[in-house]
């Protein structure tokens, strides 16, 4: 599959781990560091190690798996390891993992000594189609999603599709939510193709298509002044539900599961506010409801959810801002939604 050129960096697909080794060898780095979590340390690191060969020249940093690690304490842990290992400004951080690793590692690297180079080797579907592309880095505070972060582009992205072979089915579904989002916001043909694909096992071609969509939008608007807000469809409500779940649930929602809920609610708002037809709403709800398990949202949590939505980064002047569909494959950014409308959309989800 073709390499995709982003703003200033390549996104490799075929032979990407060989490309990574070339990149490291030719980069003139004084030292490099590989950031993993406990699962990617087991499932993905051995391939990198076998290709790199020599055990010299790099150090490993491993963190606990899961969203709970995407916080300031783990970030300090990464910074301290870099200090202890003697990282200098010509060091490279290789983020080998899912979106938690690329967000946290990207943030740690973009702030360490005011910024060192980093690359992403995404190992989840979600990080291959979304988190590794576009330069958003970040951490959560008190489970408020990505509340601290930077826009910093990686030096390259290396997508090795076969890493997905060890990924649990629930994580495939999580990434699929962002792929479906890509179709809904920008490409009706892609949405139609996804609907008829083996969605429990998305092909490498579909991964490539999603990366093309995300990359095109983020090249146009890297700092989310305008059209990049399209990529936030489903996230105003989805992030609030995700935060609430991270705080309260023993087994929290994955990012994609929360965004799927957000996309149902925000499609309902789109039907009410931006002209999404009832047929289109029903089609979206059917696809998402068939894929994702029902999640219980209590009406008593609405105030808390609204409080989370009020912290969304798209808001201005205390008004909650959603990206809403006008049709399948098209969207409108900057739609102010009232608290009553947002609660009505949550009720719509509850009563489905
Ligand atoms: N920066 C962005 O543009 C962007 C975009 C979308 C999502 N995100 C963020 O990404 C995060 C979610 O990322 P995620 O879904 O990849 O979660 P994740 O990084 O937590 O990975 C999910 C699980 O899969 C495991 N795993 C990873 N690769 C594996 C493999 N190949 N085999 C077996 N297990 C593997 C991980 O250890 C983890 O347990 C969220 O924090 C979200 O906010 C960021
Ligand atoms: O890249 C983007 O822009 C996105 O909005 C992609 C989202 O899927 C992703 O979850 C992103 O991290 C959300 O960003 P945030 O600014 O709402 O925290
Ligand atoms: Zn997302």
UniProtKB/TrEMBL annotation:
Residues 175-315 form the 3-dehydroquinate synthase C-terminal domain. Residues 61-172 form the 3-dehydroquinate synthase N-terminal domain. Pfam families: DHQ_synthase (PF01761), DHQS_C (PF24621). GO terms for cellular component: cytoplasm. Its cofactor is NAD(+); Co(2+); Zn(2+). Its EC number is 4.2.3.4. It is an enzyme of class 4 (lyase). It is found in: Cytoplasm. Keywords: Amino-acid biosynthesis, Aromatic amino acid biosynthesis, Cobalt, Cytoplasm, Lyase, Metal-binding, NAD, Nucleotide-binding, Zinc. One of its GO terms (biological process) is amino acid biosynthetic process. GO terms for molecular function: 3-dehydroquinate synthase activity; metal ion binding; nucleotide binding. The keyword Transcription regulation does not apply. It comes from the Bacteria. The keyword Translocase does not apply. Pathway: Metabolic intermediate biosynthesis; chorismate biosynthesis; chorismate from D-erythrose 4-phosphate and phosphoenolpyruvate: step 2/7. It catalyses: 7-phospho-2-dehydro-3-deoxy-D-arabino-heptonate = 3-dehydroquinate + phosphate. Belongs to the sugar phosphate cyclases superfamily. Dehydroquinate synthase family. Catalyzes the conversion of 3-deoxy-D-arabino-heptulosonate 7-phosphate (DAHP) to dehydroquinate (DHQ). This is 3-dehydroquinate synthase. It comes from Mucilaginibacter pineti.
